[in-house]
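[agent] plan:
  1. take the single chain provided in the ticket
  2. run structure prediction with default settings
  3. attach structure tokens to the ticket
  4. add a short note for the reviewer (M.T.)
[agent] executing step 1
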Amino acid sequence: MNDKFDQTNIYVKAQFPGEIIMINHDYEIKQALDFLRLDPLIGFDTETKPSFRKGEVYQVSLLQLATPDHALLFRLHSLTDFSLLKEFFEDESIKKIGVAIRDDIRALQKTFPFEPRGFVELSDMAKDHNLKNFGLKGMTEEVLNLTLSKRAKLSNWELKDLKNDQKIYAATDAWIGREIYIALNESTK
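[agent] step 2 finished; step 3 output follows
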């Protein structure tokens, strides 16, 4: 039996295995980004408080950047100096990997302007690899034989203190994109 399946043949839930680090202050940004620069492949995602009324739109609440062992969760509403993040997002040598990143980039650019470089859209790779799925959950199942829980997606990302399940969800969504990217590249070797 494939070890990625449990006894009921349902995909095992993917969960980020590393350390989750919250970035709540401007003075934490430099050290966080210096740490991320040690890895050339970074999982990327954002979370925004959901809106349930027509015309109600919120700014990005959380930026997630992940390596295999660390997920850094930037609480954007508590930050004021975005110059180092701008520099990071304009660094072509670091791949920032995710799904539906064009929307994430546009939303982030409302908080701070930057010229996106080094971003990799996984749905484009999915098309190139003739996958059936183009969303993160579907690609996770198709490529990694794992599944993602999307329960925390519609939670309040602007809470003063994020709940543990929100942190795990956010870290997993950024990290799993990186894992899919690696698996797709290995499949073409």
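[agent] step 4 note for reviewer: The chain has a mean pLDDT of 90.
[agent] ticket updated
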